[in-house]
Design brief:
- The protein has helices at residues 7-22, 26-38, 40-62, 65-71, 73-96, 101-106, 111-126, 129-138, 150-183, 187-210.
- It is mainly α.
- The protein has one domain (7-17, 24-209).
- Helix 2 runs antiparallel to helix 3, helix 3 (40-62) runs parallel beside helix 8 and helix 4 crosses helix 5.
């Protein structure tokens, strides 16, 4: 059986995805923070991790887990709080290490730190409440049961979402990494950036924890 998403549904989904991705959320702010703290390479590695995390969410929704998350306040809350706690942890860590950013600018990243950065991005991407809700509640609405496998259609739509997210997040990361070159000339600027980035992540984690579904 041929499986395809109708052009009108695909365009409508792409437009809605674009609007959602433009709204600053955990993934975008995390990428910007990584770019300012560590540069272009770490920012792009974070984007890859974020994208893989979002891809896991797409597969979960396609296999039916998304409906469970959407209907179960317990499951949703656990995922949301886990992501929020991790953001707060990273924020505290960034604040504590704000005075050591000068070394991070001049030191080449190791394979281990690259892997750690990837998995940090993955964790933020797979626990992003905004993406979870979007995939679980919105993505299924663009599926046409008369066009073949529902799961395959969801995977295709998820791929479209991730493609848009990669371009958007990478652009944010590259722009932030470019600005980093200016602030890198002053250790004091780097310390301020690191501290502000850490506080932003902490605030973001707290915001994620206290907002969302109440039912």
């Amino acid at each position: 059986m041929t499986v395809m998403v109708s052009p009108d549904r695909l365009l409508a989904f792409a437009a809605m995805s674009f609007l959602l991705i433009l709204i600053p959320g955990p993934s975008v702010l995390f990428v910007i923070g990584r770019a300012l703290a560590h540069g272009r390479r770490v920012a792009l590695t974070t984007v890859v991790g974020n994208t893989l995390g979002a891809s896991v969410l797409v597969v979960a929704v396609a296999l039916g887990i998304g409906s469970v998350v959407e209907r179960s306040i317990v499951v949703f809350t656990v995922l949301k709080l886990a992501g929020a706690a991790y953001l707060v942890y990273l924020g505290i860590k960034a604040w504590q290490e704000r005075d050591s950013l000068q070394g991070a600018v001049t030191t080449t990243e190791t394979v281990r730190s690259g892997r750690r950065t990837f998995w940090e991005g993955f964790t933020v991407g797979v626990s992003n409440p905004k993406t979870i809700v979007f995939f679980a509640a919105v993505l299924p609405q663009f599926v046409d049961r008369g066009q073949g496998s529902v799961a395959v259609q969801m995977l295709v739509l998820g791929l479209v979402f991730n493609a848009i997210a990669v371009v958007s997040d990478s652009t944010w990361g590259l722009l932030a990494a470019t600005a980093r070159q200016w602030v890198a000339r002053s250790p004091r600027r780097l310390s301020l950036i690191g501290g502000a980035g850490g506080l932003t992540l902490i605030g973001l984690g707290v915001t994620v924890a206290v907002t969302g579904r109440k039912d």
